[in-house]
Amino acid sequence: MAKNWNVSGTYFEACNCDVVCPCVFLGPPTTGTCGVLFGWHIEKGRAGVETLDGLNVALAVDSPGHMTQVKWDVALYVDEKSTRAQRDALTRIFAGQAGGEPAALGPLVGKVLGVKPVRIEYETRGKQRKLRIPRVAEMEIEAIEGQGGKEVTLENVPLTAVPNQKAVVARSKKLSYHDHGLNWEFTNKNGFYSPFSYRGP
């Protein structure tokens, strides 16, 4: 996709690491492996003539070791509300094939388990974030309260899906994922959320 594109909105993730996930500082995962689910809600987006406003995307990543030293297995989920043209654009953007920020993670991917159009329910409420893919995944996180009730934040970390953004540190209430032979059930583990803005090629 050589066409210019841009997407912006909100993002969040949860994984099986303890808070704060050491992977973002290029450390080994808490348990030696990392299972992480990312979710994006596009508030404004365009790829060529295709408008991407209001669509959701999710990405499951299974890393069998240190995230920068092994290849990941990944599964991509795109909003079933999208048209074929929108779906193709979302797939190329979030699979890192269209350049821009997502392409930086491309060299870490070893195997694509699949790409599916699914119903993705994405909810933002105050300091909470929720995502649900029926019969596949549920994710819910809430920001950790810092001093004076302020958010705990990180920025400029070496490994992130959202470069140039300040991430709010959160704790998961639930991370459930069952697809492609992967079965995760985690609670009280790491989470992050922030705005995002990507563009390319």
Name the descriptors.
mainly beta; 13 strands; 5% helix; single chain; 201 residues
Brief summary:
The protein has one helix at residues 84-94; strands at 5-15, 34-47, 50-51, 56-63, 72-79, 109-118, 121-125, 128-133, 137-143, 153-154, 167-179, 182-186, 190-200. The protein is mainly beta. It is globular and about 45 Å long.
* Model regions low in confidence, pLDDT < 50 over at least 5 residues: none
Based on Cα principal axes, name the global outline. Answer: globular
First-to-last CA distance: 8 Å
How many domains comprise the coordinates? 1
Describe the model.
- With 201 residues, the chain is mainly β.
- It has one domain (5-195).
- The chain is built from one helix and 13 strands; from the N terminus they run βββββαββββββββ.
- Strands 1, 2, 3, 4, 5, 6, 7, 8, 9, 10, 11, 12 and 13 form a 13-stranded mixed beta sheet that branches.
- Strand 7 and strand 8 form a beta hairpin.
- The longest helix is centred in the middle third of the chain and has 11 residues, at 84-94.
- It starts with a strand and ends with a strand.
- The mean pLDDT is 95.
